[in-house]
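Reviewer 2 asked us to include a model.

Predict the structure of this chain.
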Amino acid sequence: MQNIEATGCIKMIAAPDGMEPLWIRKAWVGRILPCFPYIGYVRDGVFQVPSGDETEDVERGVAVPQDQAIAILELMRNPDDPDDLDAAQWWKNLGRPVPGEYFFFNEEYFIIVRGVFDVLALDYEDIIEVNPSRILH
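Predicted model (structure tokens):
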């Protein structure tokens, strides 16, 4: 597996779908988050760059390192929004962030700020393992 760094950036423009409470999902809105530089999809808990031979419709998006995302929630809090003050702590109470784990954000909930490419697979080895129990859609 090739070592890929979170060199891209996205800005969340809407609360993502997911099982988390709405106020937690809304806390992402407006945040600029680091992400891996490719738009991809998750299959069986693995973030993959499209190869062009996918046989099913897949939800496309980016992988964001949990540790960096939660640190941004904590550092960039909105003091006028009481829910925003608790979002990072909510994740921490769940035992997050877990080093090496990622959030997956669907492309309909963000805009690209810089350094994110929508390409077919550059190398079939370019995959990043993601914990499927912590994927946000």
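Residues 8-134 form one domain. Confidence is low (pLDDT under 50) at residues 123-137. We have added this to the supplementary material.
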